[in-house]
Design goal:
Elements lengths: L2 H10 L2 H7 L15 H32 L4 H26 L1 H14 L3 H37 L4 H15 L2 H17 L3 H23 L11 H23 L2 H7 L9 H39 L4 H36 L3 H28 L1 H6 L6 H14 L3 H17 L2 H26 L3 H25 L9
Helix pairs in contact: 3-9, 3-10, 3-13, 4-6, 4-7, 4-8, 4-12, 4-13, 5-6, 5-8, 5-12, 5-13, 6-7, 6-8, 6-12, 7-10, 8-10, 9-10, 12-13, 12-18, 13-14, 13-16, 13-17, 14-16, 14-17, 16-19, 17-19, 18-19
Length: about 500
């Protein structure tokens, strides 16, 4: 680091930054069982807030599945089946453009660790310009492609397709708010202020639950009609924009405005825009690839449903499994996000070995947690699925064997998710995107097609393919992080 950068860091770097990077730059020890408590404590301090925020935000989608599950049996099953192709398409579109946050977090964390707070604020300003433009485009694009996407993906039957089109189109209206929110979230996460997004997410959930109840089931005293699945989508969109208002309001507090000069005139910088976009594109494409895999995965389940004549049972079971599994990988992504901040700040402080130690320690914590969750999945799968499918015994019975299968992939899944986020923090976005593309189209998609509808192993065959994929993903990310090329990336 230059002398000027060292002086700036010493004079202006906040205490939170020093807490992350004031540890020695000793080489990592990978093959050990003990934890480096000082590192773990720092990651937990940041990651716990991120985890709570992400789980809370996830519940905006989870409650759609949960609450439509309390409709009458056939309506509930069809509605949950419609979410199976609808949500991956929504996240493919929204997630691609929301990847503006990946580049924002990496750049802000570097500038923050260097002590250049105005440059950190400039990164957010330019990220917001990008987010507004691409968010509006993404919402319109998603609205128009939804019918085409559902024609192909919703293969269980016409009822699933019609409901999926209605719900997904409504959700696409929330893409602009989602993208801008992710830009703000990346800024505060990079500073270590992960509690900001948590507060916004808590408010989103509170209002989403109330609105879900009113709009799904109707409320005659207020003249609110029963909208069923469409009501769930409408509630989620309203909650999304509420969260945006809250997190934007925090950015306008005097302390943040003055120290980071976020909204000062003349903040537009083409080089910053170019750098954010260069980090956004591979990350966004990785999200599209991931969601494309999930969407095709869901289509293959729908094909099995169609052939078996079970209506929407297997599709509804798969959606319940995905939402249950998401409660596992959301904390992993959250700790990965915290690790990305620690990795990026450590690299900005000139401590690449410390950055590596953060990655490995976070992974150890994640593996320990997944081992516990895996035991629960093995022990009581029907009871777990019953939380989402209380009115369908068929869905619970169909999902239980597959939930037991995916327990075998949880430890390596957490390795893949945490270390992928750590590599994002280092700027190795292109590697992650290429690896996920190859694994999705070289393993998950063809194998789930082969083991599911082709060889007749049904739902269990499809989820066995997913388990093999998660184990390979973890192995590839461990291999890359074990190397040292990511330590040399300059942002």
């Amino acid at each position: 680091m230059s002398e000027r950068g060292q002086r700036g860091r010493a004079n202006t770097a906040p205490e939170a930054t020093l807490e992350l990077t004031d540890l020695p730059d000793d080489p990592p020890r990978i093959l050990k069982f003990s934890l480096e408590v000082p590192l773990v404590r720092r990651v937990l301090r940041i990651g716990t807030w991120v985890m709570l925020a992400m789980i809370t935000q996830f519940f905006v989608n989870y409650f759609d599945t949960l609450m439509v599950g309390y409709l009458e049996g056939p309506i509930a099953t069809a509605s949950q089946a419609a979410l199976l192709p609808g949500m991956p398409l929504f996240w493919a579109v929204g997630g691609f453009f929301a990847a503006v946050g990946v580049g924002t977090q990496a750049i802000v964390a570097r500038r923050y660790a260097e002590g250049d707070l105005p440059k950190a604020g400039q990164a957010l300003y330019n990220a917001l310009l990008i987010a507004i433009v691409v968010g509006l485009f993404g919402g319109a694009f998603g609205w128009f492609i939804t019918p085409v996407g559902m024609d192909y993906l919703a293969s269980a039957g016409d009822e699933q397709k019609e409901l999926a089109i209605t719900y997904t189109r409504i959700r696409m209206l929330g893409v602009p708010g989602m993208v801008v929110t992710f830009a703000y979230k990346a800024f505060f996460d990079a500073l270590g202020r992960t509690w900001v997004h948590l507060y916004a997410a808590l408010a989103m959930n509170f209002f989403n639950i109330i609105l879900n109840y009113l709009l799904i089931f109707g409320f005659e005293p207020l003249g609110i009609p029963r909208l069923e699945l469409a009501g769930a989508g409408t509630a989620s969109v309203i909650a999304t924009y509420l969260g945006l208002v809250i997190i934007a309001a925090v950015s306008m507090r005097r302390e943040t405005r003055t120290r980071f000069e976020i909204y000062r005139a003349g903040r537009f910088e083409p080089q910053v825009v170019t750098r954010i976009l260069s980090l956004m594109l591979p990350s966004g494409l990785a999200t599209v690839v991931l969601m494309a895999g999930f969407a095709l995965f869901g289509k293959f389940v729908g094909d099995v449903d169609h052939v078996s004549g079970d209506g929407n049972t297997l599709s509804a079971a798969t959606k319940a499994i995905m939402d249950t599994a998401a409660l596992c990988f959301m904390p992993a992504i959250a700790f990965g996000t915290a690790t990305a901040t620690a990795v990026s700040q450590s690299l900005g402080a000139g401590k690449p070995n410390l950055a590596a130690r953060y990655g490995w320690e976070s992974t150890r914590v994640g593996i320990a947690a997944m081992l516990v969750i895996g035991v629960v999945f093995l022990a009581i799968p029907e009871q777990i699925i019953g939380l989402l499918a209380p009115n369908s015994e068929a869905v619970r019975q169909a999902a239980a064997p597959s939930l037991r299968i995916i327990a075998a992939g949880l430890p390596m899944m957490v390795c893949g998710l945490i270390l992928a986020q750590a590599l994002y923090g280092a700027g190795a976005n292109t590697f992650v995107a290429i690896a996920e593309f190859l694994l999705q189209f070289g393993c998950l998609i063809p194998l789930s097609w082969l083991l599911g509808p082709q060889l007749g192993f049904g739902l269990e065959g499809v989820w066995l393919a997913a388990t093999i994929y998660t184990n390979l993903l973890g192995a590839v990310m461990c291999w890359k992080f074990y190397g040292k090329s990511w330590r040399e990336i300059r942002l």
